[in-house]
Fold this sequence. Notes:
mainly alpha, single chain, 10 helices, 0% strand, globular
Amino acid sequence: xxxxxxxxxxxxxxxxxRMHALNFTxxxxxANDLVQDTMLKAIRFYQNFQEGTNxxxxxxxxxxxxFINNYRKIAxxxxxxxxxxxxxxxxxxxSAERNGSVSKMIVDDxxxxxxxxxxAYSVPFIKYFEGFKYHEIAVELAIxxxxxxxxxxxxxxxxxxxxxxxxxIDQ
Length: 171
């Protein structure tokens, strides 16, 4: 099957994908975003589709996994927000607003540290930080899965060295 034939098959299922997405999101705009993400992932990873299998089912699995991953990201970001009326000093560490210039300086230092990383390490690390899975990074960069994990680990260690002054502040 050619890429064009595959793309046409994906497009032909857009209506059923949209209906299925509404079951997940209960919101039209969120459903449209989910359908778009699903179609992009399907087209990006079309070589993983095995002919003779249920194409619509394959698309629905991609959609379900995309929805779950997005939900986890949102839930994870909300865990740092305290809902209590009383905010303890432990929670203040995560919820207190710092001086804007200090925050900008920290962000600038992180960006400088990322710029010091060799591209072989920074690209997989940034993709992982953006929420990509190890296997997605390996496929996109055409490198083995173990290499992706190693490069991300090495990038973390290098960033720790560059940003060691901030580690002393939090202790």
